[in-house]
Design a protein that fits this description.
alpha+beta, FAS1 domain, 7-stranded mixed β-sheet, globular, FAS1_dom_sf, Fasciclin domain-containing protein, cell adhesion molecule binding, FAS1_domain
């Protein structure tokens, strides 16, 4: 009888396959694997927003306008320190959510729409200056399209209106 139980268990495993851990979205893998976005990734983690990108799917894609490390370094020291202070987590979330838009927003669609609703709630103004995409006046370079969304590079950090 023990052989039957062993065979049943092995047969079930063969049919269902081994248990798999949650898969991480390719968008998150690209963003978190790049040395250019370590500050943005760290900020998302500190603000508790990293799961939003880790678990983006083709049914719930997200477009990310990711500021580079240099964009964060360009903030004056006081603003940067204040932004990353534990006492200002809500402000950090506002800033980061301004960089995300629910859905897939291709460059041509962004230009057509002109106003994108950010996850923060404020609109992002999109313009095209001789083929160069700008979001709220900041250069937005399309980096890659994924089934789980789009990734754009920003050379400055967007700040919400107060």
């Amino acid at each position: 009888m023990g052989k039957w139980i062993t065979a049943l268990i092995l047969g079930t495993l063969a049919l269902t396959g081994p248990a798999r851990a949650d898969t991480v979205s390719p968008l998150w893998q690209s963003l978190s694997g790049s040395p250019d976005y370590t500050t943005f990734v760290k900020a998302l983690d500190e603000a508790g927003l990293d799961d939003r990108l880790k678990h983006a799917t083709d049914r719930q894609p997200v477009t990310v306008f990711a500021p580079t490390n240099a964009a964060f370094e360009a903030l004056d020291a006081t603003s940067r320190t204040k932004l990353f202070s534990p006492a200002n987590r809500d402000r950090l979330r506002d800033v980061l959510n301004l960089h995300m838009v629910s859905g897939e927003v291709a460059p041509f669609r962004a230009v057509e729409q002109r106003d994108l609703g950010s996850d923060q709630g404020q609109s992002l103004k999109v313009t095209d200056d001789k083929g160069q995409l700008h979001v709220n006046g900041v250069s937005a370079v399309p980096i890659r399209h994924f089934k789980t969304g789009y990734l754009y590079r920003l050379d400055r950090v967007l700040m919400p209106r107060q």
